[in-house]
Amino acid sequence: MHLHSRYTIYLLLVITINRGILSAQKIVANYDEEKVPAYTLPDPLSPGGKNITSKSDWESHGRGTTLGFFYDHVYGKIPKDFQPKMNWKIEHEDPAALGGIAIRRQYLVTFENKIKARLLVYIPRDARGPVPGFLGLNFRGNQLVEADPAIIMEKGYVIGGKNYVKNNRSLESSRGTGAERWPAKLIVSRGYALATACCSNFDPDFHDGFKNGLHALDQKPRNEKSWGTITAWSYGMSRMLDLLTEIKEIDGSRISTIGHSRLGKTALWAAATDPRFAMAISNNSGCGGAALSKRAYGETVQRINGNFPHWFNDTFKKYNKNEAALPIDQHQLIALVAPRPIYVASATQDQWADPTGEFLALKHAVPVYELFQETPFGATTSQPKPGKSAGNLMRYHTREGKHNITPEDWKHYLNFADHWLAKP
Ligand code: GTR
Questions:
Q1: What confidence tens digit (pLDDT) does each residue in 130-150 have?
Q2: Residues 307-342 pLDDT 10s
Q3: Are residues 158 and 169 in contact, defined by beta-carbon separation less than 8 angstroms?
Q4: Which of 22, 66, 347, 376 could form a cystine bridge with 47, CB 3.0-4.6 A?
C-alpha cells in the first residue's frame, strides 16, 4: 500500500478512536460516591456575601439576592413588562365526575388570544368551604388523567418516548394512561382539589430558538440571561394560580405546587418565584431541581445543558464541567420556598437524579428555614430508609423503585398536606 494512503488510514483510525473516547466520555455518568468531587456549598445565609441573621434580613435582602442569582445564572428572567393578556372560560363541566365525588371543570385559557392552554380541575363535591389543592403540569395532556372521553384531548406538541405518542402528538390510546400519576379520586376523597395543564401549552419541550409558546409573545431581544423553558412553565403555573384564586370552591391561598422530574424542577422554581404558592412538592426533580449541582453525580450541568439547551438560560452553560464556579447551588432554591412547607422525594433506582444530592439540598436549606421555625427538618440528619418519610415543615422520602410518581408518593404528600395545608 502506498505510504500516503496508509497514513490516511492511520489518521482516520486515530480520529475514529478519539471520537469514540470523546463520546464515551460524554455519556459516562458518575454513580460512585467516592468520585464525587470535593465541593464547597455557598452559605445560604450569606448570599452575595451579606450575612443574614434574622427573618427580616432574609425577607429584606436575603431572598431577593438569592432569587437574583437564580435568574442570572440558572433559569433566566422574564422581562417585568411581559404581561400578556390572559382570558379564560369554562369549556366543559361535569358536576358528578369520578363516580360522583367531584366537580370536574375544563378551562380554556388564552394569552393574547394566541397561545392556548387547558386547565383540568377536580373539586370535591361535598366540600363545605373553599378547599386547598395541588397544581402541577403534566407531560402529554390532560386526557392522561382519566379515560373519560369528555376530557379534551391535547392536540399540540408533546414529548415522545411513549407508545401512545406518534410524531409528538398524543394518540386517543393515551387516555387514562396517567391515572396512577394523577390519582384524582384519592386526592379528591382526601378533600383536596387537583388542577393540571400540559406543560407544552406554555412552551413545547424542544429547542426552537424560543419562537413558540409563551416566548413568542416576548418581543424583547434575548441575551444570555433570558428566560428558558422551565421559566415559561413556571410562569404558566403562576397564571394558572391566578385562575384558581378566582374559583369560589377553591382557596387560592392554599395551593401547593407539585411536579415530577423536569416538572418537579418547575414546581420548585414556581414556588420560589411566586410566594402565593403555599407549599411545594418536588418529585424526583434531580439536576436543576432539588439535586445539588456541585456533586456532579448522575446527571450533570453539562449533560442537562447538552440534552436540553432550552431549559435554562445561556449563562448556566458556563458551568458545564465547571460546577465549582456556580455562585449558588440548589439548596438555595429550596431555601427560597421558606418558610412554606416543602417536600422533596427521590426513588431508589433513580440514581440519574441523585437521591443523596436531593436529600442534601433539603438539609442544607435548613439554616434559612430555622430563621422562621425551630427544627424544621425534625431530627433528620441522614436519609430515612426507603418507604419512610422524615422531617417536619421540610420533609423527605425515598420510594423503592424507578423514576416515577406513584400513588405511594401521593400518600406521603397527602399526609404532609393534611398537616400543613388542610387548615386555613
Ligand atoms: C431526563 C432528564 C432529567 C429529567 C427527566 C424527565 O431526560 O435528564 O433531568 O428531567 O428527563 O423530565 O423525565
A1: 999 999 999 999 999 999 999
A2: 999 999 999 999 999 999 999 999 999 999 999 999
A3: yes
A4: 66
| Fold for the domain defined by 47-420 | Rossmann fold (3.40.50)
Question: Which of 139, 165, 308 has most ligand 1 atoms within 8 Å of CB, for mutation?
Answer: 308
Span 237-264, pLDDT tens digits: 999 999 999 999 999 999 999 999 999 9
Q: How far is the C-alpha of 215 from the C-alpha of 122, rounded, in Å?
A: 29
State the number of CA atoms in the 13 A half-sphere of 414 facing the CB.
19
Q: How far apart are CA 107 and CA 135, in angstroms?
A: 14
CA of 57 to the centre of ligand 1 (A): 36
**pTM, two decimal places:** 0.94
- Sign of the C-alpha dihedral computed for residues 362, 224, 138 and 244 taken in this order: positive
The DSSP result for 16-29, as a single string, is: HHHHHHHHHHHH--
Sheet holding 115-124, edge to edge: 86-97, 102-111, 115-124, 193-198, 131-138, 250-260, 279-283, 342-347, 394-399, 389-391
**Mutate-to-test residue for ligand 1 from 74, 263, 299, highest number of ligand atoms within 8 A of CB:** 299
Cβ neighbors of 80 (< 8 A, separation 6 or more) are none
- Using one digit for the tens of pLDDT, what is the confidence trace for 29-86? 999 999 999 999 999 999 999 999 999 999 999 999 999 999 999 999 999 999 999 9
Q: Is residue 5 among the annotated active site residues?
A: no
* Residues forming a β-bridge with 291: 287
